[in-house]
Structure formats: C-alpha cells, structure tokens
Write a structure and sequence with these properties.
The chain is an alpha+beta fold. The chain has 2 domains: 196 residues, Rossmann fold, CATH 3.40.50; 101 residues, Methionyl-tRNA Fmet Formyltransferase, Chain A, domain 2. The chain is 26% helix and 27% strand. α5 packs antiparallel against α7. The chain is elongated and about 65 Å long.
Length: 316
C-alpha cells in the first residue's frame, strides 16, 4: 500500500519506523512545523521530521490543514491509506476522504477512555492499573471513530509518563501493522465506541504542574509520575521554585497543615498533605541540576515548619 504517515512527537516514531520496515511504501510524511525549544528558543525539528529526513522520505509541515498547496501536495502522493499517531491536529473531512482505505489512528489509551491529547499522562494521574493502544478509523471528532484493534498494557507502580509512553509507542507500532494486515485481508471488525464509557484526557499545561498540597499524598505522587518528564510538578519554598522528580507517599496521620515540612531525614523531605505525608526524595532547585533531596538539604538547611506553596505566598 502507498501510505502517508502523520505524526509529531517521540510517541509517533515507533509507528513510522514500523511502517518503514514493513512491505508497504511510505510515500510521504506530515508533521507539525518546527517549534522553538530550549533556553535559546531556537527552532527544532519534531522527532518524526528527524526520522523522515534520515530516511529521505518526502515531508510536509503545514500550518493550516486546509491550505490548498498542502492539499494538492497530499493528493499528489496518491495515498491508499493515511496512518496517524500523535499528530496533534484534527483532520478535516477533505483529508479523511482522500485515501481510498481511509485514515487510521494509533491512540495511547483503551478507547473510549481518555480521548484527547494527554491519554498516557491522565491514565497515571487517575490511578489506572492498565492502559493500552487502540487503533481506529478516524472521523471528524476527537478520537471518536470506530475502534479496530486494542491491546492492553499494565501500568507499573513506578511508571512515569515518559517510561509508559515508550512502551506504548512500541506496542502502537506493532498494532498499526497488525491493523493494516487485517485491513488488507478484509477481517477488520469496526466497533463503535460506547458513549457511556467516555472519559477525556485534555492537554496538560505548565501551570498544571503546581502542587496542590491539599490533595492526598497518593494523588500528588500520581500527578508527579503522570507529569514527568513534562510539564513536571513543582512547588515554592518562599520564592525558591522546586521541581520535584521523585517522591514517596506515606500513609501516616500528622497534625500539620497541608504543605508544611514535618521532618527532614536522610530519606528526604517529608511534607504534610491533605491525607498522609509525601517524602520528597529527588529535587531540582531553580537554575540548578537534579539531586537527591538529602544532598540539597546538606547545602540548604530546611527546618520542619517551613510552608510550601505559591511563590511569595505562605498559606495562612
């Protein structure tokens, strides 16, 4: 089959590479325009663009999905199928109707749960024990098309969004190929999504990483793992911003209000929460590197009673 691939981040790379290794012909790749990245804010290519250029596959980076020049170029590739993984844009009808075999999406959840841009992160944040990959025929909605194949994957107790995404990406590449094999064989069964079981997974923003100490220690630790590596969770000690990389929830009862440091030991910095205690074990102060909390405390004495929260704001 002549296949056009659409995708942008690391998650999409496994699907693209699986197609490249298959018997099919990847006739073109579509990815998001280069974005500013890092402290220098220099334009950086997406991971999918890097692979496309390495493999010398024709590439398009439209700013608008209905741009006439882009649509003409897409038609010129004459795709039998468009395969999509984490592209980051909703495809209009003019594109969905273009390939004779339709458009297939690789989504990082067990649909209809966690529709949207952050399915991997939200599955961890919500405390799910498993998630998976769904392939589906695309329609004009956000992840609303008929399900084709699904494969589940357990979420490990120490999984971050980064580690889980890597495993799901690999599974997604395999399931995409299986889906295309069954598509050609005529054995795919389209399963409409059950609207009663829908949940959403909206895109996370940087400000979502600010820790709400009124949550339970378990909830905060899940948010930490679900937001690692991005957007990361953080709090403030006075005006000092701390990014928290690792922490352990402890189910103990303390009289201290949420956000108060209750003890400092070689294990880490213990902080009261809405329920239980969160022991911070790895920290990154602003303009510094990641380090063990014990290492930070050795150079920056922290005493019990310190209140963590918003910058320049101590909770009364």
């Amino acid at each position: 089959m002549r296949i056009v691939f659409m995708g942008t981040p690391d998650f999409a790379v496994s699907s693209l590479e699986a197609l490249i290794k298959s018997d099919h012909s990847v006739v073109g790749v579509v990815t998001q325009p280069d974005r500013p990245k890092g402290r220098g804010r220099e334009l950086a290519a997406s991971p999918v663009k890097v692979v496309s250029q390495r493999e010398h596959i024709p590439l398009l980076q439209p700013t608008k999905m209905k741009d006439p020049a882009f649509l003409d170029a897409l038609r010129g590739w004459q795709p039998d199928l468009i395969a999509v993984a984490a592209f980051g844009r909703i495809l209009p009808a003019v594109i969905l109707q273009l390939p004779r075999s339709g458009c297939i999406n690789v989504h990082g959840s067990l649909l209809p749960k966690y529709r949207g841009a952050g399915p991997i992160q939200w599955a961890i944040i919500k405390g799910e024990n498993e998630t998976g990959i769904s392939t589906m025929f695309m329609d004009e909605g956000m992840d609303t098309g008929d399900i084709l194949l699904q494969k589940s994957l357990p979420i490990r107790p120490d999984d971050t969004a980064g580690s889980l995404s890597a495993r799901l990406a690999e599974l997604g590449g395999r399931l995409l190929i299986d889906t295309i094999v069954q598509l050609q064989a005529g054995t795919l069964v389209r399963q409409p999504q059950d609207s009663r079981r829908v949940s959403m997974a909206p895109l996370l923003k940087k400000e979502d990483g600010l820790i709400d100490w009124a949550l339970s220690a378990t909830e905060i630790e899940r948010r930490l793992r679900g937001m690692t590596p991005w957007p990361g969770v953080y709090t403030f000690a006075g005006d000092d911003r701390w990014t928290i990389w690792r922490a352990v929830p402890v189910d103990s009862v303390v009289a201290a209000p949420p956000g108060m440091v209750t003890s400092v030991t070689k294990e880490g910095i213990a902080v009261a929460t809405g329920k239980g205690v969160l022991v911070i074990t790895e920290i990154q102060p602003a303009n510094s590197r990641r380090m063990a909390a014990a290492q930070y405390v050795a150079g920056h004495p922290i005493t019990p009673g310190l209140r963590l929260g918003h910058a320049s704001h101590q909770i009364p």
